[in-house]
Amino acid sequence: MRVAPPIVLKEDVRRKLEQLARGRSIAARVVMRSRIVLLAGDGLQNKQIAASLKVAPRAVALWRGRFLELGVEGLLKDAPRPGHAPTISAERIAGLIAKTTQGTPASATQWSTRTMAKEAGISKASVSRIWRANGLKPHRVDSFKVSNDPQLADKLEAIVGLYLNPPEHALVLSVDEKSQIQALDRTQPGLPMKKGRGATMTHDYKRNGTTTLFAALNTANGEVFGLCQEKHRHQERLKFLRMIDKTIPANKEIYLICDNYSTHKHARVERWLETHKRFQVRFTPTSASWLNMIERFFRDLTQNQLRRGVFQDLEQLITAIGNYIDRHNLNPKPFIWTAKASDILEKVTRAQAAINKRRSA
Question: What separation in angstroms does the CA of 24 have from each of 31, 52, 60, 77, 323?
Answer without folding.
Answer: 9, 21, 22, 18, 53
